[in-house]
Specification:
The complex is a heterodimer of chains A (377) and B (175).
Chain A (H helix, E strand, L loop, with lengths): L5 H28 L6 H31 L4 H6 L4 H33 L6 E8 L7 E4 L12 E4 L2 E9 L4 E5 L6 E6 L5 E6 L5 E3 L13 E4 L11 E9 L6 E6 L8 E5 L3 H7 L4 H10 L4 H5 L1 H9 L26 H5 L32
Antiparallel strand pairs in A: 1-2, 1-12, 2-5, 3-4, 3-12, 4-5, 6-7, 6-9, 7-8, 8-11, 9-10, 10-11
Chain B lengths: L4 E3 L5 E3 L8 H19 L8 H13 L2 H17 L7 H17 L7 H26 L9 H22 L5
Antiparallel strand pairs in B: 1-2
Helix pairs in contact in B: 1-2, 2-3, 2-4, 2-6, 3-4, 4-5, 5-6
The chains are: A alpha+beta (377), B mainly alpha (175).
């Protein structure tokens, strides 16, 4: 056997450790494509280890804040007037206490108002207790977990707008993937023109509206709301505001400022299921469900592509192709285009072109970890 | 001659290898992870800092053993990965390389001066971001920039905080 010189041992170890990690990464990528999480145990252990410290830290910060607000902030007042010191202290303590309560009350009132305006919907309030330990990943941890009924893929909002969705669930904590993460996305539409397109994160404060056709008119300042097509969020929740529109082919480059303050989250609301929203809006029953398509906004092609959009948002790594003419004899039946080639041939006058306002059909044969930053040309 | 230098029996100069109090490396690493997860909740700008990286660099430079440096970097990087949504290994690989390089440099240069520590921290931060960016491009097919103004600012901030943190961590050394 070939002996390795001692001075090269660390180099061999380095190569070995990196090789193992690269292989592990490759296995995870493959498993993610198949939607199998093989790292849940390791992640669970780490979160289980860190979350008690995070809880303690959060508790300590609250206490320090309280002590600062209730005691140290009053020291200047005491110097100003000795005679009125005690009285001032007492009054300032009360003012501080009331201010703190008012701020907390304001936040809770906003939550309560939202809660009361959607009385029939089950909502789970949660407190943010930690963030991702690495800057590239936009996630936060909340103090609710499987024990509170939290499940993966539940929507997370604040009264201001959409925050993200539950990406991992542990016993007493859950990981929330923020909308600004590169792998995050939400089914959205422009509030005025009702043009639908997913909105996703780029790892930056601003979001990206991905598939709005070049000839569609979009104005800066236009509101973006949820489309409800992803089956995670109800329709018409605020997502953000368009802050930048640049021309591009075949899609415009649109940047959106999120409605919720994703950089300063302290309390959030977790939505157990979208069905509860729908139950509130439309009474269940075969007659209602039969009427539903007629009551929908005039976007029949959008409705057709709902399944495709949902799939694409849950598996953001899939590649989307731009709208293009596809030969009739080779065009497959997809969720966005449920007609079979035989059906298409029965309508020879209609050009086989995907609608421009729609995100293109996900291609199942594409590499699973291609970036979701735009279509391939 | 530096006060930390010693002579071996052949008369060659060696830079001193520091020992630390039992368990202090693991406590420091765990504390860095907790701080990294907790601080940005209350101070969003703290997301620029990378405490696990600073701890990896410090112990790499001080212990001056490439094998232990790279293994510590691997452990810290994987733990950091497991607290995120990214696949395990992204920061693991980067911190493995940083740990190894820091230990190798620490064994050849005197890294006790604050200016040297600042410069090394800035370089290692940039190296980590470069490795992470490269791994994302090659293995995850992400298309982000390898270097940006934000990374440059973060490198500088980490350099300053690193120099201060290293003074605190120096107290953990066995005399």
């Amino acid at each position: 056997m070939v002996a390795i010189p001692s001075r090269h041992k660390s180099l061999v170890l380095l190569a070995g450790v990196i090789l193992i990690q690269v292989l592990a990464l490759a296995i995870q990528i493959k498993a993610r494509a198949a939607q199998v999480d093989q790292t849940g145990v390791i992640r669970g252990w780490t979160v289980g280890f860190v979350s008690p410290f995070e809880r303690t830290g959060a508790w300590t910060v609250e206490k320090v804040r309280g002590a600062w607000d209730h005691y140290f902030a009053l020291s200047d007042t005491a110097k100003e007037n000795e005679r009125l010191r005690e009285e001032n202290q007492s009054l300032k303590l009360q003012v501080n206490d009331l201010q703190t309560k008012a701020e907390e009350g304001g936040r809770l009132a906003a939550l309560l108002e939202f809660r009361q305006s959607h009385r029939e919907i089950k909502m789970i309030p949660a407190r943010v207790i930690g963030t991702s330990a690495e800057p590239a990943s936009q996630v936060v941890y909340v103090d609710r977990g499987a024990r509170d009924g939290i499940k993966k893929d539940m929507g997370v909002i604040t009264p201001d707008g959409v925050v993200g969705k539950v990406s991992e669930v542990y016993g007493s904590a859950a990981q929330i993937l923020l909308l600004s993460d590169k792998e995050s996305g939400v089914g959205a539409m422009l509030a005025d023109s009702r043009i639908q397109s997913p909105v996703g994160g780029m790892g930056e404060p601003l979001l990206n509206m991905k598939y709005v056709a070049a000839d569609d008119e979009v104005k800066t300042g236009e509101r973006v709301v949820t489309s409800g097509m992803d089956r995670i969020f109800p329709k018409d929740l605020p997502v953000g505001t368009v802050v930048e529109v640049k021309p591009g082919m075949p899609f415009k480059k649109i940047r959106v400022r999120p409605a919720a303050n994703l950089e300063r989250l302290e309390e959030v609301i977790i939505l157990p299921s979208l069905e509860s929203f729908e139950m509130m809006k439309t009474p269940a029953g075969p007659e209602d469900s039969a009427k539903a398509p007629a009551e929908m906004p005039k976007q029949p092609e959008s409705a057709k592509s709902a399944g495709a959009e949902r799939q694409a948002e849950r598996k953001p790594a899939r590649v989307r192709k731009p709208p293009e003419r596809i030969p009739q004899e080779t065009k497959p039946a997809t969720p966005a285009n449920p007609e079979t080639p035989a059906q298409q041939q029965s309508k020879p006058d209609q050009p086989v072109v995907q609608p421009q306002n729609q995100p293109p059909t996900p291609q199942p044969q594409a590499k699973p970890n291609e970036p979701n930053t735009g279509p391939q040309r | 001659m530096n006060v930390n230098d010693t002579f071996d029996i052949r008369g060659e100069t060696h830079i001193e290898v520091y020992k630390f109090r039992g368990g202090s490396i693991f406590v420091a690493a765990a504390l860095a992870l907790v701080l990294q997860a907790l601080l940005p909740v209350y101070f969003p700008k703290a997301a620029l800092l990378d405490f696990p990286l600073l701890v990896t660099i410090y112990f790499g430079l001080s212990r001056r053993n490439p094998s232990s440096g790279l293994l510590l970097g691997t452990l810290i990087g994987l733990l950091q990965d497991s607290l995120s949504h990214a696949p395990l290994g992204l920061y693991g690989i980067a911190k493995t390389i940083v740990g190894y390089t820091a230990s190798s440099i620490g064994a050849r240069l005197d890294t006790e001066h604050p200016a040297a520590r600042f410069a090394l921290t800035v370089i290692f931060f940039a190296l980590q971001q470069f490795v992470v960016g490269l791994t994302e491009r090659l293995l995850l097919a992400h298309s982000g920039a390898l270097f940006s103004t934000r990374v440059a600012i973060a490198a500088g901030v980490n350099g300053i905080i690193g120099v201060l943190l290293y003074f605190v961590l120096d107290r953990l050394r066995k005399s």
